[in-house]
């Protein structure tokens, strides 16, 4: 159930990350450093994984495979980052994969003991794609520290599934897998949080989006790209030009 009607741009990005097997459902795993991202990745994939560098880069990547409900998944463990604003190679690669690689689901893993800091990245991911699941890891540590999280309220405010887990013990992982399955099968109603800007910025966004309509297809989140262009993000231009020059 992988993407069948990919634009050549998406195909190129997936090849850039050495992802060419379209028979598997592609997942992205994102999160801040030290949130348990690798622990969850290892739990899901076991021995069915490999590591290396992104082509032409010195940034490590890991990819793994697993099966759930008779579906085959390929999960890409993105570099641990704090932001998608592309101030580093790690951030640029993670941003490009989420924005242009079109993963069927992006899992954002957070540390439940310092959720406020971690939600910065989660909200940025929500601006790129609707298909997001937020994992609250280290729930046992949060409980020991007396931290209580209203999961239902957080889920309502973010507009996407929020799954509490303890990755090192595998607790909650099956619930996560079922949420991934339901999202792939479009059984979940999504209403992701999107920041609203003042009238002038919103008008500027729409004007840029109209221009992007002429060069990018519907697979790309033009609103988010417009926001990055307003912010004079030269790296996003470089990524787009790389895609278009290879189509």
Would you give an account of this structure?
The chain has about 250 residues and is of the alpha/beta class. It folds into 2 domains: about 180 residues, 3-Layer(aba) Sandwich (Rossmann fold); about 45 residues, no CATH class. It is built from 10 helices and 7 strands. It has a 7-stranded mixed sheet with strand order 2-3-4-1-5-6-7, with helices on both faces. A hairpin with a 2-residue loop joins strand 3 and strand 4. Helix 8 crosses helix 9. The chain is globular.
Strand order of the largest sheet: 2-3-4-1-5-6-7
Question: How many extended strands?
Answer: 7
Residues in helix, %: 40-55%
Instruction: Classify the oligomer.
Output: single chain
Q: What CATH first level of the largest domain would be assigned? A: Alpha Beta
Structural class: alpha/beta
What fold name stands as the CATH topology of the largest domain? Rossmann fold
Unreliable segments of 5+ consecutive residues: 1-6
CATH architecture of the largest domain: 3-Layer(aba) Sandwich
What does the overall shape look like? globular
β-sheet strand percentage? 15-25%
The tally of helices reads 10
For the report, how would you describe the main beta sheet? Answer: 7 strands, mixed
**CATH superfamily caption of the largest domain:** P-loop containing nucleotide triphosphate hydrolases
What integer value in Å does the Rg equal? 18 Å
H/E element string? Answer: HEHEEEHEHEHHEHHHH
């Amino acid at each position: 159930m992988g993407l069948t009607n990919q634009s050549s741009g998406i195909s190129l990005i997936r090849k850039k990350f050495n992802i060419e097997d379209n028979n598997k459902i592609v997942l992205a795993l994102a999160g801040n450093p030290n949130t348990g991202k690798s622990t969850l990745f290892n739990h899901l994939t076991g021995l069915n994984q490999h590591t290396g560098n992104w082509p032409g880069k010195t940034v490590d990547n890991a990819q793994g495979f697993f099966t759930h409900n008779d579906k085959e998944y390929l999960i890409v463990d993105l570099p641990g980052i704090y932001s998608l604003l592309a101030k580093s190679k790690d951030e640029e690669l993670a941003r490009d994969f989420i924005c242009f690689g079109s993963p069927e689901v992006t899992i954002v893993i957070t540390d439940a003991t310092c959720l406020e800091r971690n939600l910065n990245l989660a909200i940025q991911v929500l601006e790129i794609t609707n298909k997001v699941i937020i994992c609250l890891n280290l729930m046992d540590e949060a409980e020991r520290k007396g931290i209580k999280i209203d999961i239902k309220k957080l889920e309502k405010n973010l507009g996407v599934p929020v799954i509490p887990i303890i990755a090192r013990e595998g607790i909650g992982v099956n619930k996560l897998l079922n949420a991934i399955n339901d999202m792939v099968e479009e059984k979940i109603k999504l209403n992701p949080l999107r920041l609203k800007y003042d009238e002038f910025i919103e008008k500027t966004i729409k004007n840029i989006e109209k221009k992007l309509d002429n060069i990018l297809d519907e697979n790309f989140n033009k609103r988010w790209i417009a926001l990055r262009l307003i912010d004079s993000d030269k790296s996003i231009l470089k990524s787009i030009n790389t895609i278009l020059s290879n189509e």
